[in-house]
Design brief:
alpha/beta, eight-stranded parallel beta barrel, 13 helices, 8 strands, about 45% helix, binds 3-hydroxypyruvic acid, binds magnesium ion
């Protein structure tokens, strides 16, 4: 079966880099997948597209070396299984607040007897290869997002969920729920402490940790804290950032 590049980085004791698609274009997903990232995530929660576009984006990512992942809109087993069938090698599930919810996520990501994933691997076979079903359970990464006060309060129980691979921190929702400004580097104190607590708790439990970073300084800081996967800006953010920089450089000063 085709390898999961994220897991390969982890075996090499290196953090993985992840790109984030909010624009519903196979072409832009393909560009990101060809740019040297270890993974590309198709964001079905806040991305401006639906399921059919997401599938074409996964097809485009498959043409490159980067590992395809999907952030699903919610904890919905049917959607999780559909995106796995579409070739996602990782599922990032938003708003996980309890161990029961984390168990539900894990079960949807694994075939029986480990879980309840329904059989119908479709693009899994095309992306992964003929032996996809034999290895999918150990290849797919189940990510529980912690991004609320309730999730933070239950982080220990969530991290104890059998067969859960990783925690993905959503600093913007977490900031919003903690009542501090939405995260930019350096993070507000309460958010910074919460992030440290989640990283330490997940690592103690043997789980990996990923985080969405609003800029490069935040990503460098998070890697120095031992985070295992960083996303730095989404595609729309990259476009905005590059455009603003270019316009600033080429715009002549007011006479
Ligand atoms: C958050 O920061 O809340 C996110 O969901 C990032 O993807
Ligand atoms: Mg969020």
């Amino acid at each position: 079966m085709r390898a999961n590049t994220i897991r390969e980085r982890w075996t090499d004791r290196r953090p993985a880099t992840n790109a984030w698609c909010s624009i519903g274009s196979p072409y832009s997903a393909e560009i990101l997948a060809a740019s040297g990232y270890d993974a590309v995530t198709v964001d079905l929660q806040h991305g401006m597209f639906g399921v059919d576009a997401a599938i074409t984006m996964l097809q485009a990512i498959s043409a490159q070396a980067a590992t395809p992942m999907v952030r699903v809109p919610s904890l919905d087993g049917a959607m999780i299984m559909k995106m796995l069938d579409a070739g996602a090698y990782g599922v990032i599930c938003p708003m996980i607040e309890t161990a029961e919810q984390a168990s539900e996520l894990v079960a949807a990501c694994r075939y029986p007897p480990r879980g309840i994933r329904s059989y119908g691997p479709s693009r899994g076979l095309l992306h992964g290869g003929a032996d996809y079903v034999d290895h999918a359970d150990d290849t797919v990464i189940a990510w529980a997002m912690i991004e609320t006060r309730a999730g933070l309060a239950n982080v220990e129980a969530i991290c104890a969920t059998p067969d859960l691979d990783a925690i993905y921190i959503g600093p913007s929702d977490l900031a919003s729920d903690l009542g501090v400004p939405i995260a930019t580097h350096p993070l507000p104190r309460a958010l910074d402490d919460a992030v440290d607590h989640i990283i330490a708790t997940a690592h103690r439990a043997g789980l990996r940790v990923g985080i969405f970073c609003t800029d490069e300084d935040m990503a460098i800081d998070m890697i120095s804290r031992g985070v295992d996967l960083v996303t730095v800006r989404n595609d729309a953010g990259l476009l905005r950032h590059a455009t603003a920089e270019i316009l600033q450089r080429i715009t002549p000063p007011q006479p």
